[in-house]
Design brief:
The protein is α+β, with helices and mostly antiparallel strands and about 200 residues long. The protein contains five helices and nine strands; from the N terminus they run E-E-H-E-H-E-E-E-H-E-E-E-H-H. The strands form two sheets. Strands 1, 2, 7, 8 and 9 form a five-stranded antiparallel sheet that branches. It has a four-stranded antiparallel sheet with strand order 4-5-3-6, with helices on one face.
């Protein structure tokens, strides 16, 4: 891949929320805390009250007129009976080392070494990492790059769960992908590529 592109970014990883019982069990074994975010919808209110009663949640500064909430959650086996979470609540490890820290943002860059550490503890969690690059021999690089999906596949512009699978998706940019130059690049790249997807 390095021979085919001029890289102009370092990877930014996106860890998908914990959404299955298997992922939750892995989080319990591997991490001490997680971040929960959600809406104060009717289904979430008793759940939040139960977290408070058990003393396992620390909410960010309350905003009494906001429907959204954000909090740090202490993970433990005593929360397994609350699974699955209410639909309006997500549990994320994006601010838990090695996936991030207290000030991490969803699209922060990381070094390849940091990405290696994330992959080493990933287990059944879903991770996508993206790089922007200009493909050599292609006249334009807008929208071009590489996406790595672990425990997922890239469908319809989103990662879909697919435990145990990984893939690499290449974007040539919407204009180039449908052009003769894009066809020539795909043919000459020497890469074994699957079916093209809509960008």
């Amino acid at each position: 891949m390095r021979d085919l592109a001029d890289w102009n970014s370092i990877p930014w990883p996106q860890l998908e929320p914990v959404s299955t019982a298997e992922q939750y069990a892995h989080a319990l074994r591997s991490f001490g805390t997680a971040r929960i975010v959600g809406d104060r919808e009717p289904g979430a209110v008793p759940f939040l009250a139960e977290l408070r009663r058990r003393g396992v949640v620390t909410f960010d500064a309350e905003q009494p007129y906001s429907r959204m909430f954000m909090a740090d959650l202490r993970l433990g086996p005593d929360l397994a009976d609350l699974w699955p979470l209410p639909e309006s609540v997500t549990l994320s490890l994006t601010r838990t080392p090695p996936f991030g820290g207290p000030d991490s943002e969803p699209e922060d860059n990381c070094t390849e070494q940091e990405l290696d550490r994330m992959v080493a503890v990933l287990g059944p969690l879903m991770l996508t990492a993206s790089w922007h690059c200009g493909w050599r021999g292609v006249p334009e690089f807008k929208g071009s790059g590489v996406k790595l999906c672990l425990n997922s596949v890239w469908l319809d512009q989103a990662a879909e769960p697919s435990p145990g699978q990984f893939g690499v998706w290449i974007a040539l940019g919407s204009r180039v992908a449908r052009s003769p130059e894009g066809e020539v690049w795909r043919r000459d790249s020497g890469l074994l590529l699957g079916e093209a997807q809509q960008e």
